[in-house]
Amino acid sequence: MKNKRLLAACMAALLAASSLTACAGGKAASSGDNSGKTESAKASAGETTTGAAKDTEGESPKGESPKGEKTVLTVWHTWGAGPGTDAMEKVVNMYNQTNDKNVEINLQFVANKASGNTQTMDKLMASIAAGSPPEMALLDNFQVATWAQQDALVKLDDLMAASGTSFDGIYDWARSGSQYKGSTYSIPYNGDTRALFYNKDLFAAAGLDPENPPSTIEELNAAAEKLTIMDGSTYKQVGIIPWLFAGKPIYTWGWNFGGDFYDADANVLTIAKAENIEALQWEVDVADKFGGKSFVEFAAGLGTGAQDPFVTGQVAMAVKGNFDIANMAQYNPDLNYGICPIPSKEEGKHMTWAGGWAFVIPRGAGNQELSMDFMKYILSDEAQTVMAEDSASLSPCKSVSEKVFGSKDNYKAFMDYISTAKIRPPVPVGQMLWDNLNQVLDSALNKKDTPENLMKALDVSINEELKKLE
To answer: 437 and 395 in one domain?
Structure first.
């Protein structure tokens, strides 16, 4: 935590210094130019310009280029190859071909450091501090508060108003994730939620009704016991591993035990709520019931992709996201499975949580009005429909998600709860909290301390960090 505070302090100092000379980044189509020409000289020579502009007061540069020339806006992202990247490239190409601003969007992959299931773009932070950021970047939306608190992002409210960009018709979880202390810092691009996937054939073989999956934690426990098959000391088949896949974040089960993790009015993280502790204790109890240390070690050795234990039939039930539907089709198209709401402690109190990615404008970037034109397009029905259909990601726009997924049976569990989905606390210590909750889970499963002690200790330490940033 001390290292994170030091990094934040250094970031703030660098930003303060760089704000005196900050210019827009973004390479022209012909990168690697070391000619030393100024932007105006390049324009006179007929070269593509980046439209760099000063932004020392947080105002919105015009980003205008000489008539007839393309203004290239660079977007950094951390996504590898796959349907999501393919869909984003398609959306960008559509904008490049149809916009009337003579703008070309240039997507650039930037290697990053992974942290749990999230990603931090270290290169972006360095570029902001140096005063040479790209015009835009794609971030995990729950990290926006962390970047905003460090004064690393441009407030978008004025740009949105000037361009006629509106959040009308988007889900509350998408709106909340894009805002920090009443200001908007990102434009949501996609979304995802979680549900319980279960193997219908394994249910039938165990004498369970494949059309009546567990709805409560009590029913989940009973089904897991029937679905777990041992061959001596070997796990031939497991009913459920609560912390596998999208079940790993303590949020998943804490909310379904009736807990919560943030009091927005008081700006206090509520990690030590009794329901959250009870949820973690339940996960430990499940591990103990099915072998304790050996069960935890078995879970740690399971694979992903084609070796995903749900895909192979080793695990009968697992919490997964809508993004996993494509994996099922790719790796085991004949898998007979169902999708239902995550079981809750109380009947009918099911809860899911939403994530997603969003576009931001880094502090010091030029061409902010042109960037907002692209970001406005990102929220259009045309762009969102392509994103949703091609990537199988949910749309932050209600009408698009309903149009694309509303009639699909395998999306029913996601669509039924998307409107009430929770989000991870939108606080500047969000990434720190995510990492520490994962550490708490690991410590609890490995008997380093009790769930109660671990959660209470984290509650104290994380709120101390949050108060330092108020």
So the answer is: no
